Amino acid sequence: MMDKKEALKKIKEDDFFLDDADKKLKADKEVVLAVIKNNPLDLEYADKKLKEDKEVVLAAVKDSGAALEFADKKLKADKEVVLEAVKGYGFALEFADKKLKADKEVVLEAVKDHEDALEYADKKLQKDKDVILAIEQSGEVDGENFAKQELEIDESDDVSEKCTSYCDLASEADDDSASRLYSKAADFAEFAVEWWDDFGTIASSGKLDKKSLAKLFEKWRVNILENRGNLGHMEKDDLYSDIIDHLEEHGDDKKLIKQIKSQQKDSYTIETLDGPFGTMRDGDGKVVYFFSDEVDYDASRLVVSTAYHSFVLDEDGEISRNWAEYDPSQLSTEIVGDIEDELDFAEIVNKIDGGDANSAKLEMFINELLEKNIPCIFVNTKEKLITQISNDDLSPIVDCLDNLKVYVREYDYAGDY
Fold it and tell me: What is the pLDDT of residue 229?
């Protein structure tokens, strides 16, 4: 068990994580104060009594107003604490006590930092003339034309272009407006067409607070994990190197860096994925996967996130992938008959008449699928490779015949399922 002296030494080296510490260290005020100097959001992992300690909470919110979320209820009702939080992070108003959301001085400070913090204010203050004036004054940038451009992006339904558009506009803005625009861009970065560039642009801008930057890097990590969108010339190792370089320069979250490096080691590499990947509505939404042994649903989801990268607003107004799958999914073939979902290749072999070798039956089955323009995807779960099958070379699959699994999927637009 780590003692206090060793913990303080590691904190100085930025090599200590409060969430992994024992209860005694989480309850030690000196240790916690030292931790939150580096990572104010680690207040979340402090002992309950220290979340009630005004000195500790003030130290945290002075560096990151977002830390107010983890303070004790009494301190969320302390005006001095809340004012300190919203001055640097207007959205901290969300975590303030109801009475302080109705305090004009507090709300004015919050909206000066970010106009969108107004949504967390008391309804009466949302209509207050002084509050509205403060927003108008802080929101002025380069005149009506600039404001008009921002409004056009806000109202656009094309979520794939919003991030880049906000970034482009931010590059022309003053500091206050740039912060607002890069924050908006971060909300849509995961849906951007060339997200690998946009994530780096936002991270390098220096306009996000620590909590927003941490969320940005997490979205970035997930996009790489999902291989989201058609990456074209981008190599997997280049994507991982890029996010790690940005993290080391702008975020320095050692735990996340470690997680990303582990993800890089364990993730699938997509060698080829040419499609066509369509929808049942359009007559070509079927895909057949061949797994070297057990079906890995993460691999099939990776194919989906790579091939289907358009987004729509769902019934709740949330952005979601314009994609759905049928369960069960079915496939009718001449050589095998009707099959659905997942099955051993041995079951397919038994349905094919004749005394041909299993490898020949595999070739017959795949050839029929390819003739029908159905993408066939081979997933080698041991080597972590995903590739689209052609009839030119079936040897990698033939080597796995003894344990080969087949997985049938039917995909469609989200609203058609």
Answer: 62
Q: How many CA atoms lie within 13 A of 344 on its CB side?
A: 8
- Model pTM above 0.90: no
Tell me what the pLDDT averaged over the chain comes to. 88
- Cα separation, 245 vs 250, in Å, equals 9
Strand, helix or coil for residue 228:
coil
Eight-state DSSP code of residue 285: -
DSSP 342-371: EEEHHHHHHHS-SS--HHHHHHHHHHHHHH
Q: pLDDT tens digits for 47-97? A: 999 999 999 999 999 999 999 999 999 999 999 999 999 998 999 999 999
pLDDT tens digit string along 188-197? 999 888 888 8
**Cis check: omega of the bond before 276, within 30 degrees of 0:** yes
361 CB-near residues (< 8 Å, 6+ apart): 348, 349, 352, 354
Q: CA-CA distance, 133 to 117, in Å (whole number)?
A: 14
What span, in angstroms and rounded, lies between the C-alpha atoms of 262 and 82? 39
Dihedral angle sign, alpha carbons of residues 21, 26, 28, 34: positive
Q: What are the strands, taking DSSP E only, across 180-303?
A: 269-272, 286-291
Pairing of strands 376-380, 286-291: parallel
